[in-house]
Specification:
The complex is a heterodimer of chains A (about 375) and B (about 190). With about 375 residues, chain A is of the alpha+beta class. Chain A has helices spanning about 45-50, 55-60, 70-85, 90-120, 125-145, 165-190, 190-200, 205-210, 215-220, 230, 250-275, 330-340, 350-355; strands at about 5-10, 20-30, 30-40, 155, 155-160, 295-305, 310-315, 320-330. The chains are: A alpha+beta (about 375), B alpha/beta (about 190). Chains A and B meet through helix 1, strand 6, strand 7, strand 8 and helix 12 of A and strand 3, strand 4 and helix 3 of B.
């Protein structure tokens, strides 16, 4: 192997990248000396766009901030608007929101599984995962009319009630998932190829994770039991029984184990939601619905997305437009502060593996 | 803790937004000492975000630093005002590593200089020489009209008001023509 120092770009057109971003790598041989993250391939200016729109017009674009996981954006947007305006949603709407968020979490974890397995060449797992994710998207299509961008969690509740027999179809899917997820353990999680590649790679310490504001599986795989659903419960999570899985190794494999265990927890939560779903209205009557005004005030709301804490800062100014909305997902800090340091000393072949384990969604950086 | 903040940093009362979410507005010159106190004495070890709101009418930016303690699951919003003109403040990157990228983001979007931050290079934009886009005076529509050209064959460049007026006129003419045809047919039938 030559010791010549070379610079290459990993992405934005690369199957191992998690979206529209690139990492500039300085290499000696195959060992990374320096990594620099670059974004800017998908800047759509959502935070600026919402300043020109009414609250209800802004609602239609927030789900597009993160493609693999649009629902936490909808939930945050709705919760921030409701908090500023002093609106209270009905119990049925809250349960339905939890159901949507957990189905969305499961779908996002399947997508992660496809990416993570693909990053080391286990393509069959990816095909299984995409097919199983599609079963969840079928339910979303029936419920919301859309497979990916649902525009369903609306300020004041949810856009429409459950179709007849919908909960039964969710139960059928959950029964299937309980059997199916075990098969993923055999072909992916316990697969020697994956273990050999993932154990001891991309290790993060607990102190570093807390100090630098890392979230989600990155934090939980270092032994920190942090989950917004438990720590600052929203909707009806307080009345639901679930665990926050953790690991201590802090490497790629530990993060995979946490994600896999979280899929079981999501199924468990969904089973409870199906049983406990109350009757009632799904949408409150909103005052001046189309020209709805937010008072001059600000707030910070957060939910636990499939990739960690996902938060919105929102400020109103007394008009019908939002003065400021800042989206703070895990990606900005994970793609810059974390990835740039974690890749130093790693091998070129591990870049996609490490990146996939961090839950980076570039569209959310360029919001 | 709340009374200590109020007395030591001469702030108004700490506002309890909801359970576990607090907010205080603090003078710019006292902000960093308050951040250090919260971090060192009250375990607010995590900086979640730094955000900026442009209050152009009042001539200032509201900078909000959001910090969390995982031990008690509490979040503090520390807000301070800085002048919009030649906006600048100190960098927090010596205290929190992640502040570096958050400040770089705000520098690009609002043009705020963070003294002590060594990398304030462009983040999402490329060769940007115009007003920082999240400042209120930056008009998205005007920018698009002045700097971008529409591709031929796309409907984007149609003046929608004029177009709907034209379509309404066509529809009206068709309706009137149909009415006339009906009337003349009726007259012929009578004859």
């Amino acid at each position: 192997m030559s010791n010549k120092h070379i610079t290459i770009f990993h992405g934005p057109q690369h199957p191992g990248i998690t979206g529209n971003m690139s990492v500039e790598l300085d290499l000696i041989g195959e060992t990374i000396q320096k990594a620099t993250t670059h974004v800017g391939y998908l800047h759509r200016g959502f935070e600026k766009l919402v300043e020109r729109r009414t609250v209800i017009q802004a609602f239609t674009i927030v789900c597009r901030i993160c493609v693999p996981e649009p629902d936490p954006n909808e939930a945050n947007f709705a919760m921030a608007v409701e908090e500023l305006a002093g609106l209270e949603v009905t119990p049925r709407a809250e349960y339905i929101r939890v159901m949507v968020l957990e189905l969305s979490r499961l779908a996002a974890q399947f997508l992660w599984m496809a990416g993570q397995s693909g990053s080391i060449g286990l393509y069959a797992v990816g095909q299984w995962a995409i097919a199983d994710r599609d079963l969840i998207l079928d339910l979303f299509e029936e419920l919301t009319g859309a497979r990916v961008y649902h525009m369903y969690i609306y300020p004041g509740g949810v856009r429409r009630d459950l179709p007849e027999g919908f909960l039964g179809r969710v139960s059928t899917l959950l029964n299937y998932m309980k059997k199916r997820l075990k098969e993923y353990d055999d072909v992916f999680i316990n697969n020697a190829s994956f273990k050999n590649r993932a154990i001891g790679v991309g290790v993060i310490s607990q102190e570093e994770a807390i100090a630098n504001g890392y979230v989600g599986q990155v934090l939980r795989a270092c032994g920190v039991e942090a989950d917004v659903r438990k720590d600052a419960p929203y909707l009806v999570y307080e009345s639901l029984d679930f665990k926050v899985p953790t690991q201590t190794a802090g490497d790629v494999y530990a993060r995979a184990l946490v994600r896999r265990a979280e899929m079981d927890q999501s199924v468990h939560i969904l089973e409870q939601v199906v049983k406990m779903m109350p009757e009632g209205e799904v949408m409150i009557k909103m005052p001046t619905h189309r020209k709805f005004k937010l008072p001059k005030d600000d707030t910070w709301v957060k939910v636990e997305s499939a990739r960690g804490e996902f938060a919105y800062y929102m400020a109103g100014d007394g008009s019908e437009k939002i003065r400021r909305m800042q989206v703070r997902g895990p990606s900005l800090v994970h793609a810059y502060t974390l990835l740039e340091s974690l890749l130093v000393g790693a091998e070129l072949s591990d870049v996609a593996l490490i990146m996939n384990s961090l839950g980076i969604c570039p569209p959310e950086i360029e919001r | 803790m709340f009374s200590e903040i109020k007395n030591r940093f001469a702030t108004d009362d700490v506002e309890v937004k909801r359970k576990g979410l607090y907010k205080v507005v603090v003078k710019h010159e006292r902000l960093f000492a308050l951040i250090v106190m919260l971090k060192e004495m009250y375990d607010y070890k995590t900086l979640n975000t730094i955000t900026c709101t442009d209050w152009i009418e009042e001539g200032h930016f509201a900078l909000t630093y959001i910090m969390t303690t995982l031990k008690r699951n509490e979040t503090f919003m520390l807000q301070t005002m800085i002048l919009r003109e030649e906006a600048h403040t100190k960098s927090l990157s010596y205290l929190f590593k992640q502040a570096q990228i958050m400040e770089r983001d705000l520098h690009e979007m609002y043009g705020i200089k963070f003294e002590g931050n060594e990398n304030l290079k462009e983040l999402s934009l490329e060769n940007w020489v115009h007003t920082p886009p999240l400042r209120r005076e930056f008009d998205t529509l005007e920018f698009v009209n002045n700097h971008l050209t529409f591709r031929d064959g796309r409907d984007d460049n149609i003046d929608t008001k004029a177009e709907s007026k034209r379509l309404r006129a066509i529809k009206k003419a068709e309706k009137e023509a149909a009415k006339k045809a009906k009337e003349s047919k009726k007259a012929e039938d009578v004859q």
